[in-house]
Design brief:
With 194 residues, this protein is α/β, with parallel strands linked by helices. The chain is built from six helices and ten strands; from the N terminus they run ββαβαααββαβαββββ. The chain starts with a strand and ends in a 9-residue tail after the last strand.
Length: 194
């Protein structure tokens, strides 16, 4: 059995993961949502990302010393233990439980998804995930839809040449108004499907 490849991010109601200036302060989780994130992060067997998200997440490598909130410290411990694969042509080294990708994106994803053991393979960062979406390598899309309209910024989905049919698997509404949507690629419905 292969691992499921997921793409999970906070997203605005109008479909952006970051605002026009790269701002993500609107997506800070409250206690209820942080508990859910920690639960989901425990499922991750490997994390794939580009340079941008890798650098954004570097502070979590030392968060046990810099953060005092119990849920943040818990997240830091979970995050540090996850093996990470960083795709970058500009980085020469990475820190923590990470390695630079040496193979083709599709080959790396296939190798990680095919490894035995529990856990999903998580892809993060919009630019990197866009590559995987275009290669049809994402099995599940997990969005945390925030009740905010940003009017522009970094989109969750890249422009696509053809539609992407999905099947809704799960929804959950949090007290903060965030709505969790979990969808998977819909199975092909026969020869007439495009």
């Amino acid at each position: 059995m292969t691992r499921t490849v997921i793409y999970s991010m906070a997203v605005s109601l109008d479909g952006f993961i970051a605002g026009p200036g790269g701002e993500i302060d609107w997506a800070a989780p409250d206690e209820e949502l942080m508990r859910f994130h920690n639960l989901q992060t425990r499922e991750i067997g490997a994390h794939l990302c580009g340079r941008g998200l890798y650098e954004d997440m570097l502070p979590w490598e030392t968060a046990e010393q810099t953060r005092s909130g119990p849920l943040e410290v818990e997240f830091a411990r979970i995050w540090k233990a996850i093996p990470k694969v960083v795709f970058s042509t500009t980085l020469h080294r990475v820190e923590g439980n990470a390695r630079l990708a040496r193979a083709d994106v599709a080959d790396e994803v296939a190798a990680l998804a095919g490894q035995p053991g529990p856990g999903v393979v998580s892809a993060g960062g919009a630019r990197f995930a866009a590559t995987l979406i275009r290669l049809d390598l994402i099995d599940e899309y997990r969005q945390f839809v925030n009740p905010i309209v940003l009017g522009g910024g970094t989109p969750y989905f890249p422009p696509l040449r053809q539609r992407l049919d999905l099947e809704l698997l799960e929804t959950r509404t949090f007290g903060s108004g965030v709505v969790y949507l979990r969808c998977r690629r819909a199975a092909a419905k026969g020869d007439g499907q495009e």
